[in-house]
Amino acid sequence: MDDYLSEHQRKCVAALELLSDICSKYHITFYLLAGSTLGAVRHGGFIPWDDDIDVGLKRDEWYQLREILQKESLGEFTYIDDELDPTFPRLFGKILYDGKSCIDLFLIADWTTNKRSGRWHWKIRRLSVEAYKKTLHYKNPPRPGRVQHNELTYKIKKALKHGLYTLCALLFGRDAMVKLARKNETSFTNRNPDAYINLYSIYSMEKEMLERDWIDHTSLVEFEGKNYVTVGDTDAYLTHLYGDYMTPVDTSERVAGHVETF
Question: Cystine design at 221: which of 4, 40, 75, 259 (Cβ 3.0–4.6 Å)?
Fold first, then answer.
């Protein structure tokens, strides 16, 4: 591990401890998610080549924490989201150190296992998020290990989608796209939801769906020497997300993936 990554990981751990103290103060629950849960289970902390921490909060508590982090003193860290900075290209929040991401704060929304209804609202999510980025003239950075598709039909579909996102951005603008995304978060809240979803993360709808029992009945995992809340069934969750999660990826894919400065 290079010295920069090692030092940045230490800052991320300090940010997580600060977040834990703030959430305890206000009786808010956050969950380690995705690569951070994987790191806790497989390594007792960071995946050695990872460079930020993923946490999630149920929607109401996400908004509560959002307001708190805009007011609390965070010392050497800063909090950023689309409300604080209209040029921020994410609809979740980040805790930063020196402009680099330390913690991603994801929103966990009520969802449905009904594929037809879920996919429709996932398309709304995709349109609103991508059109929002278009209004900011933001391009997604390349993801390490991402499969490149060269098929003509794939390229045509991709071009049509991007044309639609660009048109919506031009016709409706940033605020309308944010409003659409935020309204979509509550699509299943009062409809007997039977699942949750990590709504603004990078994977597919199927990958990001969370069984309600995973969130409603939690467990503790050790992450860099301290215990934190995560999903109740870590094996089922990590298998769902990564497959054979105890086998590390090939050496060529072991690169830090969060290169942006905000």
Answer: 40
